[in-house]
Amino acid sequence: MNAKQELRNELINISKEVSEILWAAIGNKNKIFKLNPEYTPKELEEFIENLNFEYDNGYGGQELYGIIAFNDNTWFDRYEYDGSESWDYHKFPTFENSLKEISDEYNYL
Question: Who's near 77: CB < 8 A, 6+ residues apart?
Fold first, then answer.
């Protein structure tokens, strides 16, 4: 898997404005990349270009770690399960959504 292409695909899919990125590559790269909140479009492109390398996203240990924060307080982080890794999208729960989930699950309210 190419780390640069994977990140680009995820950013296109979510189509939200990035506020900050911290990406750490381990394995044979042992590099840490950080994009500060006041980045320019050129800095974002340079940051993404640093990720132009292949890694094994199949069976084995996690090779890449990272957090991508968005301006709407949602975020991606790296997810690994059974040797396969990818990005996992998160958002803070809201009271209304939590109440609806409880209501739907237990047929309350």
Answer: 66, 67, 68, 87, 88, 90
